[in-house]
Each structure stands twice: as C-alpha cells, then as structure tokens.
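Let's do one together. I've listed all components of the complex below, 896 residues spread over three lines.
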Amino acid sequence: MARITLENIGFHYPGAVQDTLSGLNLEIANGEAHALLGASGAGKTTLLNLLSGLLSPTAGKLLFDGQDVSQLAGHARNVAQVFQFPVLYESLSVAENLAFPLKSRGVAASQIAERVDYICDELAISPLREHKPGALSLFEKQLVAVGKALVRADLSLVLLDEPLTAVEPRIKWRLRQTLRKVQEDLGVTMIYVTHDQTEALTFADRVSVLTAGGILQTGTPAEIYETPGHEFVGHFVGSPGMNFVPNSALNVSMGERLGFRPEWAVIDESGPVQGVVTRTRVQRTHDSIPYGLVTLATLHGELSVRGATDIEVGTNTALRVHRYVAFADQQKVGEGELV
Amino acid sequence: MNRSSSRWVLATYVVYLLLPLYWLLSMAVSSNADIAGDFSVLPRSPTLANFAEIFSNPVWYQAFGNSLTYVAINSIISLTVAIPAAYAFSRYRFLGDKQLFFWLLTNRMAPPAVFLLPFFQLYSAIGLFDTPFAVALAHCLFTVPLSVWILEGFFSGVPRELDEMAKIDGHSFLYFFFRVFLPINRGAIGVTLFFCFMFSWVELLLARTLSGSTAKPIAVVMTRTVSASGMDWGVLAAAGVLTVLPGALVVWFVRKHLAKGFALGRVS
Amino acid sequence: MSSFKPHNNRAWLGVLPVVLIVAFSAVIPLMTVVNYSVQDILDLNTRFFVGFEWYRETLNDPRFLAAFLRQVVFSLTVLMIEIPLGIAVAKSIPKTGRLTPFILILLALPLLIPWNVVATIWQIFARPDIGLLGVGVNALGISYNYTAEPLHAWLTLVAMDVWHWTSLVVLLTFAGLTSIPLPFYQAAELDGANRWQLFTLVELPRLRGVLIIAVLLRLMDSFMIYTEPFVLTGGGPGNATTFLSQHLATMAVGQFDLGPAAAFSVIYFLFILLFCWLFYTTVVKRDES
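Okay, and this is what the predicted structure of the assembly comes out as:
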C-alpha cells in the first residue's frame, strides 16, 4: 500500500478549449479510505482515469510513496479498480477470476491459492468458488469484482468507481459495509468516487469535494458537514443542504452570508427570521411527538428546520438560529454561535 | 496484435479491396485499343467515351431504371409487411411464435436456384412475368425474413414502458405506432432498407429468369453485352462502375446506423 | 427474448401479411418442387408418379456427388479464411478516429456490388492478358491462367469470395467489438492481461453472438453460390468450379430434366438446413449448458 500525492495535477483533452482539471493538490495517507465526492461534470471520471493510468496528467505529478508514476501505464502502477458494474471474465470461474491478476504477474501457485482462499473467506464467497459469473446475482458478481481488485498483496491503491450503482437499493448498504470491513482488515488505500454524499460520508475516513476544475475542501466527514469551507460544500452535502441567509438577517457582522444546518435552528415565534410554514415532513417520533423537517417560506427563500413537526402548514411563525458558518465571496471566513 | 502490426493488416486488406476496384475504374476510362495494346498500370489516355456510349444507349439506362424499380418495389413491400410482424414478435408471445420465426429464417436458407422453375411457372400463370413486380415479389423470399429478423432485434431494444406510457396518455394504438414508435426507429428502418436494397440489387439469377425483354435489369444487360460485342471491356467496366455507384450512395446515407444494424440479431 | 412478454394471440394479425407473402413466394414454389420431384414429366400433360426414384438417382449420380464434394470443400475453405481474417481486420480498425467511417464505408462497398459485376470486376482484374493481377502474377515468373488451369480457377474464385464477403464478417465483428464497454478493457489492463488473454477472455466471449450470425450467413450463402462462378469461370475449366447451384441450373434450365432437378432441389435445400442446424446445435446448445 502506498501514500498517494497529487501535485498540481492538471489535464486537458487534446483539442479542448478549457482544462478539465487544473492545479489539483491532494495527499492521501497510506491505508486511508478516501472519498471523492462531486456532481456529474465535476471531472470525477477524468481524475479516476488519471489515477488508474488510462490517462496521463498534462501538468503536475502523481506520486505513489514519493515515486513519480505520472507516465506509467496502469498495470505498472499496481492499481486495481472496481467499476460501476461487475467486470469479470465470463468464461472463467470465480476462483479463476480471483487468481487471474496474480497468475498474469507470475505469482507462485501456492501463494495464489493462499491468497484466493483468504479473499474468499474475507468476502464470504467461498461457496461460489466454482461458479461461472453468469450464474451469480448482480450483488455476488460485484463482490467477486471487489475480491478480484483486492487479491493482489502488492497493491498501491484500489479505486472504486461508484461501485454500488448497479446493486439493488436494499442491499447497497450490505456491500458498502463489506467494503468498509475489508478496507479496515486489509489496510488498503482506497479512493471511492461517487456523486452520492451518503455513500461518501459513511464510507470514507476523509472526503474531498470536487467541482468543475478543483477540490473545494478535503476533510473528515464531520468537518465537511459541520464546517463547510465553501458555500457549495454546505449546499451539496446534507439532505437537505445548508440554509443560507444574508448576515444582516441574524444581526451578525462577520462575512456576507451565513449558512446554518436545519438542526442548528428551531421554530420560535420570537425568532429573527419570520416566515410561513409551507410543508412538514415527519421522519420519526419521540415521546409520541413527530419529529422531522419544517420548511418555511421567508424573505430569504425557503429555509428548513429540523425539529418537532406538530405545526400546521400555513402558520405564521419565525425561526431562531443558534449556530452558523459565515461566508464571504463563497469562502468560509468564520463560524459562531448565537444565544 | 500490437499497434504497428495491426496497421499493416488493415493497410494490406484495404489495398486488396481497392486494387480490383482501381482496375475496374482504370479500364472504364480506357479505350479498347489501349486495353488491347501494351499493358500499362495507369490508363494511357483517359477518356469518358465508354460512359458516353452507355448514356446514349437506351438499353442501358432503361435497364438501370428497371433495376431500381424492382428494388424500390421490393423494399416497400418488405418494410410494409415486416414492420407489423417484427413489432408482434418483439412485444408478444403467441401460438407458434418461435416455430414461425424459425420457419421464416429457413427461407433465407433456400437456394434461389431451387425456385427458378416454379417461380417462372407461377409468375407466368398470374401474368406478372417480365414485369418488375415478378422480380420484386421473388426477392421477398429473402428480404422479408431478413427484414423481420433485423427489425425485431431493434424493436426489442425499445423499452416496453414507451408503449404503456402512450396508452396512459390516452393515445390510440395507431397514433402511438405511427407518431411515436416508428419515428424512434428511423435508424432501424434505414438499416433494413439498406439490407433490402443490398440483397435485391445484387441478385442476378432470379432477376434474369423472371424478366424477358422489357423488364431486363442492368445486371442482365451487362452479361448480354459481353456476349454480343465480344471484347468490349471498356464499356463493360464503365457499366460496372455505374452499378457500384448506387451502393456507394446508399452506404453513405446509412453509415451511422450500419454498424448498429449489423450488431443486432436474434441469434445473439 | 429474455424479458417478460404478454401472451396475446391477436399478435397473429401483425404477422399475417408476412406469412401470406412468404407463403406465396416460398411455400407454393416449394410444393411445386416437391410435386415435380416424385413425377416423371414428359411434357406438361404427360406425367407419371415415380415415387423416390429421382432421389435415389440423384444421390447415386457421380456428377452430383462430385459437385457436392466441391461445394463442401469450397464453403469450408472460404469460411476458414474469411472468419479469422475478418476478425483480424476488425480488430485492426481504430474504434474512434477520423478515418474509421471511411474505412467502414469502403469495407461495405463490395457487399453492394451486383454479384455478376463482382465476377466481372475479377474477370477484368485476373485475366492473364489484360488484368492487373493476371499480368502481375505472370510477371513475377509464376505461370497463371485461371481460364485454363483448374487449380488457378479455384484459387481465383476463393480470392474473389474473400474479397467479396470478408467485409460482412469485418462489419459484424467490428460492431461487436465497439459494443464491449470500456471498463472491460481497463480491468484487463490493470490485471496485467496480455493481448492474447484480452482477445480470448474478454473479446471472444462477447463476440459469440455476432460470430454465430457471421458463420451462419456465410455458410448459407457460400452454399448457394451461383452467379460468381457462372460469370467468372462458367463452371470450368472442365467441372473444376461447378458447384451445386450451377449443376442444378444446368439440369433444370439447360436440359429441362424437371423431375431429377426437383429432387436435386429438395435434397439441396435439406442439406443447407441440416448444415445450419448442425452448426447451431453444436455451437449454441453446448454454450448454453
């Protein structure tokens, strides 16, 4: 496993007017599970292809443990990848599929057997060993694809490209947990590319939020959620995303705009931001009081508050904010609390 | 194969494809005196006289017209009957559907030579002999099964939800079929037309047997000219060039759908 | 055919026109042929029922057996050249690129040339007196004359068939190759697969469908070949290039032996069905199990 360093990485497709990526800097620790979170069009796929060796950066350097691998082909970088849908050799059995990356590198037969056994145990796919991929469910196939990506002991990096896309929603979490477990057991460095914030925040040690051309913020899931470094991050992460109001609305002098999470505010008739309840959404009950989201139409647009939902739609009321992050020119400039 | 050796394979094959065509073109612009004279790889004194002869002789251009007429009739018949059938095969199961499909395909395997005589008698009996309709109908023997085969592959790729959505929207089936379904499958119909054209335009055996003097197709006129005027290689080559042109035009128009059309099929 | 389809016998309405037109252009003629094949026809009003006499005679006819043998050798030869060559050429075409559409159009061209013109093109090309190929080969010091030498005539026909039909295999295979999703190539590259493994483990399994179509079409059509040898060699020299269709046409039209020609036709048709069925069941059914 390796420490991954992106040094001022840039890329433009031949003939394209603009850079697809420019000036990317990122450091991923050995054994870290890192998520690259971005909307479509943010350059996720390009970055992934730069990491896997399908493309070479047109500017900057990619270092694995300090070694420049920018110009190396994929198979020379010791990288493995799990794709959006299971990619297996259909004419080979599960065990042969798992053995393939080792065999083609001339690993000794005894070692191959040992490693395949280990992976089969780890992913609990031993009963499937002799099956052909055609006989497996989509979920099982993707498990085998994960196993094939993890089978080599000398890997520097494992890339996961939205690996849960093809899997049925109700077993997504199972695959994600399995992934997380093997990542911890094996201590592999993983980069998980996704547009789904829940997947990113629940899977990774650290998350980088990517938008067209650059990384806006890198941090632990908690940091990303609690202290977004950029308005887009606050807006993109969380469901619903952050509320934004001008700083004058809360009588704060810091920054230009203030962002607050729905749970950082409460409904309070004497609060500073007045509005009309437009809808409520119950998510759970507590002591037979329904809790969830209340949305208010205000002077500053729709704002959401997390709390008791025992309030009629159409009620005139107000909200009180007790915690905020301040932004100027979209960048975070500070944070504070209100009493 | 590595990159450079694969380039060699491709280049060699393209040269192999082009050489006979080049020679045809070279002969077409040479006079018979030049052809019979000393051998030369390049045409010695290029001339359009051979083409001029073809265009000034009604036998030639009438034959061209005859060929295009029966190819067009055949394409229209094939598409008209194949579209509803392909839709039925792609959307429903019904009594004997698999057997019927296989039976249709076996007709594609029937050697035209087998049908020569019965066709001749059949079309003579119903008075279609020596009309473009006889050839067009006879060619349906292989263009109709093929059209059903290709169209079924395409239609199966169109999600069934589309049919249901139209129903929910309150459109009649006919409105849906002509205003929604067929426009979506423009490409498929283009590819099918290409194949109908291809197999009807290139066939000679049935076309020759079923046409007498008035409906003679271009391909037949070519073979007869050879025997009549002996060694008129220049005119023959020029006529060959002219028969290649319609095919080249058709393939240019459907180039985008071509690969897709080839890829689909029930067998896969 | 995998997804669920509702059962509805009204679908027959859609299929009916096809059934009618194919019945008209295939069933009636085929019945006529079968009818002829069991009769001795002296003229249109004088015929006798002879049972399977013509079938027995045809199957024991050395000329039929010779034509059949030539046919099998020819069909297998062109298949064994065209399928691998077609795959090799398809693999060598860049999947994207400015030249690709033009290469594809060029490849499709031979398929759209009337079959007698294909033969004419090769006649002009291969003649030892005026043809580029004929003169060229002789200039290399190899004596070549396809109008006089049976082997040369046969080789010329094979070369022409390869020229004419390999494109079909190429186009089918190329379409199959471009439909393989990119991740399969990426995964193979990251796994360290070599080119041969990439071909046998990734590409070939996914080309199975189109290759079956290619082999079936080429098998059927090469078995029916008529026009090209008719124009190029006239079946000669001798009978060196007289294949089944040629032999049949001579019997039916040339000698007007209606009964034997009909029996021949039925046997011929059944043979093609049998060959395709054998291929289909051995290859497809074995793969499914």
